[in-house]
Prior knowledge:
Blueprint: H1 18-24, H2 35-45, H3 58-63, H4 69-88, H5 95-125, E1 132-137, E2 140-145, E3 154-158, E4 166-178, H6 180-183, E5 189-190, E6 208-209, E7 214-226, H7 232-242, H8 249-279, H9 284-302, H10 307-324, E8 327-329, H11 334-340, E9 343-346, H12 348-352, E10 358-364, E11 367-371, E12 382-384, H13 391-407, E13 412-416, E14 419-423, H14 426-437, H15 442-448, E15 449-458, E16 463-470, E17 476-482, H16 484-489, E18 491-496, E19 499-502, H17 505-520, E20 524-532, E21 548-557, H18 562-573, E22 577-581, H19 586-596, E23 604-606, H20 607-611, H21 615-624, E24 627-629, H22 633-645, E25 650-654, H23 660-665, E26 668-672, H24 678-683, E27 686-688, H25 693-733, H26 753-764, H27 766-772, H28 795-818, H29 831-852, H30 868-886, H31 888-894, H32 901-927, H33 934-937
Parallel strand pairs: 9-22, 9-25, 18-21, 22-24, 23-24, 25-26, 26-27
Antiparallel strand pairs: 1-2, 1-3, 3-7, 4-5, 4-6, 4-7, 8-27, 10-11, 10-21, 11-12, 13-14, 15-16, 16-17, 17-20, 18-19, 20-21
Amino acid sequence: MTAISTPSDVAVPWRDTATAISSALAVDPDNGLSGSEAQVRLGRFGENRIREHPPVAAWRRFLGQFTDVLVLLLLAAAAISGTLWLIERESALPYEAMAILGIVLLNAVMSHVQQARAEEALRALRQMASPRATVIRNGVRRTIPSRLLVPGDIVLVEEGGTVPADARLIEASALQVAEAALTGESAPVSKNAEPIPQEVVLGDRRNMIFSGTSVTRGHAKAIVTATGMSSEMGRIAGMLEATPDEATPLQADLDRAGRLLGMVVVGIAAVIVVAVLSVSEVRGLPGLFDILLLGVALAVAAVPEGLPAVVTAVLALGVQRMAKRNAIVRRLAAVETLGSANVICSDKTGTLTRNEMTVRKVVTASGAMQFSGTGYSPQGSVEPEGTPDSEDALRAETFRALVAAGCANNAVLSEHGGRWSIGGDPTEGALIVAARKAGFGQAALESRFARIGEIPFSSERKMMSTIHADAERDGARVFTKGAADVLLQKCTHELVGEATRPLTRERRSEILLANEALAAQALRTLGVAFRTLDDGDTPPDERTETRLVFLGLVGMIDPPRAEAREAVARAKAAGIRTIMITGDHPGTAVVIARELGIAGDARAITGSEIENMSDKKLDRVVRKISVYARVDPAHKLRLVTALQRQGATVAMTGDGVNDAPALKAADIGIAMGITGTDVSRQAADFVLADDNFASIVAAVEEGRMIFSNIRKFLRYLLSSNVGEVMTMFFGVLLAGVIGLSDGGSGLVLPLLATQILWINLVTDGAPALALGIDPANGRAMMRPPRPRGEGMITPRMWAGIIFVGLVMATGTLMVLDASLPGGLIEGTGSTRYAQTMAFTTLTLFQLFNVFNARSDERSAFDGLFSNRWLWCAVALSVALHAAVIYTPFLQEAFSTVGLGPGDWLLCSTVASSVLWLREMEKAVLAQFGHRRGFDRHQ
């Protein structure tokens, strides 16, 4: 046997003849490869499967949770705190280190469990595209696992099967292949074995069949030209590997926050050490330890220990809500980014449309009938278009046309679990559904018209005929459907009402014009006809398809989803632009785009036009054009990249293999769970279990609500922690002024490190989490998306955070001063009593502040009781704090004393000032026109 060519030698197999390809691949088309040669090639080319990355071990995934900057900062703080405890031993246990490590571990466990659940849900969706293949080896037809196919194998494909590898056709009989998953072409593509000398795009390679596509009609013999990663599916999978993973805006913001907090902690430690050394007399090693202890206390105050856990918890709760709305989340942090998307690039077939051909119109001699309903569900009405001269005649003609279309048909309509589906060709399925809408089904047709013969469809004849015995009349009937222009040439008469009339030249012209009008509406057209066979007619063959009676034209389309139209409108109202990117025909894309409201005077840009555009010109085009047709995966990547260069946050939706590279390159990739391919689901951030475009908009709303809630608890956590930092910082600097002194024996802190940590645990935990599940206020989809360059925390938010921090520090230090002898406000208490008062005041400050944090500009009293979990969290925090104040062993651990009713009244009155002062600030800003839209910063 001659040496096999390398794949590069047959890189353009559609150009050469099948004989030339067989010679290049050293195979006899009649006998196929020998078993030994197949084994040699399997060793050389590898198995016919998409390369998969080995799964990450569970322990590695768990350790990966500890690489976040903020988590590393917390671990460092825990290490310092634990070291100081080992030296000082001032408490029974290292409370600071234990608490910080506990929270970090909780965060890691939550993230790990959520990722594991998401991967498990995704594995449940995965299916093998083509597990077995029929080949000819050693001259014998046999079935083998498709992974064992090699270049040069002779494969046989039949109707209903899946193509196991890329192959060049040798023989094809009435072959049609559904390539929507690869090219976006909604209708099955007719195939033949003729060479194509010129360069053509993937969707126009009519003598090639591709891995993962399905055969809807006919059968064929082909020679495998590419397997595994060398196939078109593999090439796209390879593009995915070359596309880098991008951090979501939430991840980037949290990383920046972690780095900022790290620098703040270092800066605070440096400043406070210098300040204390300059204003206090440090006495030996114990004094230095006191300063280090102060640094740890300030570090604990500066770092929001609960932030990672609360972020993870809020996102996880959002994921659960989205799962109930049929959206499976693969990457937790991607939930927020979906809410900030301002462009959705959507494939047409199966995403914006149902990927179910539907008859829209039947045109006969007396007028036109319109069909409502979409998809394969046989629900819908059949009504005349306009006012026909004779509605009875029109209905009779439509009935006869649908009888012919339903009989010349091999598809089967079935219903399982409330979902209607078609077995066979989608076009034929649409005709059966139309017949059901008109009032008769397959059973009725088969009972009257028993099939006795068939002339199969061929791409040369462009028609199909079936012969039936009529149970109600003598003589056999021929029912024919096919391309309207070709079929019309076979007709001599036309049905008008219940009678037949000769077809005149003028009438033929009118029918062709009607066909063109349907095509202009992006409807795929078929003509239907019939004749009665005489007893002396020859056995069925192509000569039977003559002297036909023309019945009418059928116009059909893969219709938009009804819910997609509403979803596009909701997205538009929310400031989100929908862009259609499809491999389908430009005319079809434009019509669907108009129906969905994507573009009013839509113009489609084709893939060949994109190919010839520079990046600069493409940047200008994507600002205006929202419909792109006849594109391939490389074009989709360019479009997504061009949009991102314009500052857009891009969500890409799709279900086919051709969508996968753009799904990964986009800020958010959304794949379909039912019709989606395994490659696209692997690349996506979200998988829609119901393939419903409306679920995407629901997910956007959920993402916006989650982001709004993340801002709420960030506002709360940071303002509370700023208050703690300011209290500690100014308490030390002003210790002499406010009477905070131990008589010169050493440094006295306004609050102990354990007390600060307790405040963080009590107030940063349950209340922050309750803010994270604050109910939606109905305005999420009434505001524009967050600008791409806008950070998680805006300047307006920082102003409010600092203002609240100043109020907290001022009030806490005033209570501290009033509880101590000397200072600005004379008091009589001990240092431990004063620290307990300050401890209680700062805790209550933060619990009042939680209501402020629900919005930067909306009043805290707006929907005050809408979040019952928030009230429960506040009550729990007060109860826990009271336990620290009054439980003896906790008094020892946290250095507290019991307080009386008057003490609680003073602490509560001072702490409530943060609520009233913040309300006054909001009112002033609104009054003087500084309001920038509460929706953006709420």
